[in-house]
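Sorry to interrupt, but I need a hand with the structure work. Leave the record below and I will have a look:
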Amino acid sequence: MNQKVMQMKGKLIVSCQALPAEPLHSSFIMGRMALAAKEGGASGIRANTKEDIREIRSQVDLPIIGIVKRDYEDCSVYITPTMKEVEELMEVGPEIIALDATGRLRPNGVELKDFFSDLKEKYPEQLWMADCSTVEEALYADSLGFDFIGTTMVGYTPQSEGLHIEEDDFSILRQIISESKHPVIAEGNIDTPAKAKRVIELGAFCVVVGSIITRPQLITRSFSKVLEP
């Protein structure tokens, strides 16, 4: 693991993303969002698309977890689902590339193990993060050789419906950490400083926080909702 990635250990990674339908959708804005995150103490950035990553690189010298979110017909996997998205990310060289590592099939019915095998063969020096939704998926990704195991998808898939990352003092995270050979990145619904601190105490390599920092429409909604009659 290179020195730049090791700078993330025990630290906060801020997810700077805005999809096309969101008001802050703009590579320029995401670059400034990343700069604001750095000024606030972030030690890394998670970002979507090569365009956003290129702009973020022009603003901050922080390690980046790169993804491409793209929808494919008849497929529910949307986080870096095919080699096309990986090749786009390789143009800008994020330190880590994250991809959906749930049990769902990828476009054209491709299984995770086959896709990951192709990735490792084509880009043997690249670091890979598995975005998982259950303990079983995480341990399977760990066995495949992902460099980092993430809890990103907990509660967002049919197989993890009703699960919450923070339940029972992060029991899902604790089990994954205790049984994985590779470092575990805590991500998903970690929306308070206390939760971020706790997951690091439990042994997470680092913690990724997104919407509660970088999506002002959702932050605003949490305030306005409590004032509704």
The beta strands are 12-16, 44-48, 64-67, 96-100, 127-131, 148-150, 184-187, 206-209. The longest strand covers residues 12-16. The mean pLDDT is 97. Residues 27-39 form the longest helix (13 residues).
